[in-house]
Amino acid sequence: MSNGVIFYCDDDDDDLMMFSDIIRQIDPQLQCVTANDCEDALQMLSGGNISPDLIFLDINMPKMSGIELLAWLKRYHAFQQVPIIMYSTSINKRETDYCSELGASTVIPKLFSLEDSIKQLRETVNTFWPVKANKQQVNDGPGAAES
Length: 147
What we know:
By secondary structure, the chain is an alpha/beta fold.
């Protein structure tokens, strides 16, 4: 999985920092690229300079929501095959169903425990990493949570 790119868009700076730290714990060679609003994310992703292997989007953001960004990304050919994970503190069934209809790979809640967050994100990255034939599981890597 090394040398891959994970893109994360969230309007909360603390969440961006914690997510990036967790990704480094999962695999220090993964690059985590972040944007703090959907407009910046659109500009970064549509510019063609970033080719993420996985995309995580917060659902609730000001101006443009993560759901609106998801809809745009799934219409854009370059991102139709990229797994997009919706990642939010508040999730309801209506939003989850709508995200699935738009093409989200899954919807997962933000957890409040650091240990639980590490485990959840490790499992999510391992599940949706696009190069499954060459995928290296990282369950026993640095920062692995005890089961």
